[in-house]
Each structure stands twice: as C-alpha cells, then as structure tokens.
Amino acid sequence: MTVAVIGTGKIGELVLSGLLRAGRQASELLVTARRAERGQELRERYGVRVVDNLTAVSEADILAVAVKPQDAGTLLDEIGPKVPAGKLVVSLCAGLPTKFFADRLPEGTPVVRVMTNTPALVDQAMTAISAGPHATASHLEIAEEMFRPLGSVVRVPESQQDAVTALSGSGPAYFYLLVEAMIDAGILLGLPRQVAHELIVQTAIGSAIMLRDSGEHPVKLREAVTSPAGTTISAIRELENHGVRAALLAALEAARDRAREIAQQSAS
Question: Which residues contact 6 (CB under 8 A, 6 or more apart)?
Fold first, then answer.
C-alpha cells in the first residue's frame, strides 16, 4: 500500500527513513512538506515524491499524519472533506486523541493512534498503537506492519497513550540526561571524557540487554550488583537521599499532564 507521510519534521522523517530501511520502495511513499526547500531536501535524500496535502490524500492508501499537534486542526480543516471514509489515518501527533480526528473526518474514517520514539533511527524504537472507534483489527495489523521494522510494537488502550508518551515517547531524553550526568561525574572523578563516555554508554547498553533478555525484575538485577557495605549501596543511598526516585515519578506525571494539556489546547 502507498503511504503518505504528511508533515516531515523529525518524527515524520524518522518514519519515512524507517519505512525505506524496512524495504519499502520510494515509489510507494509520498511526503508533504510546508517549505519548498525542505521538500527538495527530502527528495534528494530519499528519492521520494513530494506532493501537496490534497494530492497525498487522493493518491495514498494510508495517511501518516506527523504534523505538530497545534497544526493538526488546520491540516484537517484542509484535507478532512477530501478524505474517503475508508482510508486509514495513522496519527503520530503527540497528545491528540483519535476523537480529535474523528470529529474532523468523514464518519467512519478509521484512525490508529501511534506513539513511537527516536530510537527508530537505529531500528530500536518502542511504539505503542491504539485503535480509534472505527479502526478494526486489520487496521491495527497494518499499523503494526508499518512500525515493527523500526523496533518493538505494543497495543494499548487509547486511555493509556498519555502515559506511554510520558514513559517511552519522552523516555530517551531521560536516559540521555542520566548518561550526560554520569559522564560529568566520571570527569569529576578524574577520567578523560572519552573514557567516561565509553564506560557509561557500554554499561547502559549491557544493562538494557540484561533487562530485556534475562526476564528478571530490575530489583533483582540491582541487588546482584549491590554488595553489603559496598560501593554500590553507598551510591544508591545518596541517590535516595537526593530523591531521584521521587523526581522521576514527578517528572513522568508532569509529562503526562503536559500531553493532556496539548490535547485540550489543540481542541479549543
């Protein structure tokens, strides 16, 4: 099926490049871009056809909408009346519920809501998909086929998508911040920056693979590193004294609440 990526900012380009790496032909993909120079850049980089929004609607089998949430209303005002009711719309607009699209598209238009993340660039994304009121199991399967080559895919009720946005959608930034802080700590302790970087990045990769492949609860894996009266428990005590766990809980709640605010602001 032909896929049109409408809005090719960071997330839109991420999806476009992933579809190409997964084996889709450039001839099966259409893209839209607000600026002509951006369209030319995408055409030269990926060999895809750059079209206007209405051409994308008329020619594509699947519309992957990746515009900023605040721009989605204007886009749907433009294309909504032209979208055939049976055409699948895949929304990558963070925070926007499928109802936002259903209210602006012809009755019966199937919408699948998707939240992915930037590790899609290295085919290690975590993508969560949810069905709108008119999306069937076959529509979810199509969405899964689109995003499975980019990493892992999980189906969740739409009511959980704001939590997904907070946890995995924004999640890579939390890990980058933690790694940045640990590299700085390594420098403080006397290590060259490059050595500290290599130590922490490989430790992060190894720890993540152990979490994924061992099946063990993270508490057990942490306890295996934490010897009585050792260095690790001393460090963990300081982390707890500084409220790191509570800070993470509060941070994710703030991200979830912001996702809800974005939806409310876009709908108004």
Answer: 12, 31, 32, 53, 56, 63, 64, 65, 66, 67, 75, 79
Residue 108 C-alpha from the chain's centroid: 26
The tokens for 165 are 């946005």
pTM of the model: 0.91
**Tokens read off for 103:** 């209210």
Residue 232 dihedral angles phi and psi, to the nearest 5°? -65, -45
Bridge partners of 65, per DSSP, are 6, 91
Beta strands in the chain (DSSP E): 3-6, 29-32, 49-50, 62-65, 88-91, 111-115, 125-131, 151-155
Alpha carbons 258 and 264: distance in angstroms, whole number: 10
CB 151 within 8 Å of CB 125: yes
Question: 103-143 pLDDT, tens per residue?
Answer: 999 999 999 999 999 999 899 999 999 999 899 999 999 99
| Distance in angstroms (rounded) separating the CA atoms of residues 64 and 116 | 13
Q: Using one digit for the tens of pLDDT, what is the confidence trace for 29-55?
A: 999 998 999 999 999 999 999 999 999
Q: In what order do the strands lie in the sheet with 3-6?
A: 49-50, 29-32, 3-6, 62-65, 88-91, 111-115, 125-131, 151-155
Residue 263 has pLDDT above 90, yes or no: no
User: Position 98: which residue type?
Assistant: T
